User: What shape does this take?
Amino acid sequence: MVRAGLKWMFLIIGTTIGAGYASGRELWQFFGHESGLAILLFAVFFSICCYVIMHVSYQKRSSDYLPVLRDIVGDKLTGVYDVMIFLYLTTTTVVMIAGSGATGQAFDISYWWGVVIITVSLIGLFLKDINGLLAMNQLVLPLLLGGLLYILLLFMNDQGLNVWSHLHEQRNWTAAFPFTALNILPLIAVLGAIGNKVKTKQEIYVAAIGSGLILGIISFIYNSSLIQIADELLLYEIPLFAILKHYPFEILIFMSILLWFAIFTTAASGVFGIVSRIQSWWNAPVWILATVVIIAMVPLTTVGFSTLINYIYPIYGILNLYVLTRLLLYPLWNKSEDKHS
Assistant: This one.
């Protein structure tokens, strides 16, 4: 039971910790100074959202996200969100594939070799259906989280940082809402596709509480570290590198490889969400659908995504806040609907 719960917990964390989170970019954009309470609220909101999505998914015995989405946002908005989730998963996965190309360039490997490496790895992963994704997450994520935590704690120790020194300053608490909302759509897509594989309610508790707790602790320590070097962060595209410059080159190489795996786990979750949705109307083997989807995405990596993201992401922000509200209030409005029915 606990082991099965940990399997889903790593799936949740793998979906959430993309390159944006692992590099520190996302955390710094939303949190920064006076954000301890915001991060605590995020951890609580995140656990509640994961619990509700998995609970609905488990009840529906769903194999793709549509039944779960319908239950959360209602019939009228399901079509809108179905398109938005599909677009979101596609854009983020394409950005991750392009990110692998860019990571390759950092190691003097050509951009296209970086793209080929992640493309072949993703197709290979889905040869074993969802089991390949789950096994990879269980192997890679403890390494990724452990490596990140090790570097952050080492940095804090070396700098003599006290993470509790600013606890009285908490004006940025509202950041918890958009930050949690940002991470919800891919979770609906991925967790909506495993309802028929969850065996017990206990698995849901382990996955939901465990993922919120781990992400909350790492976010708090990461954010506290970034605050100490806030003046330097303008010079770095990837905030993590501002911390790593204090350490030997080998550690930089090691963390860069872990960053690539963060890109890989997010891309894999994105492909899984898309494939499970396509499977509901084209019943082909997972690896064939994954191959078609991934190969179709490769040419899109050459498109200028910054414009697309500038238009699409603000819309996601608004729509996601509605989903977040529905998820957090789910127990309340679910009871009221039961009374009326």
Notes: The chain has a mean pLDDT of 88.
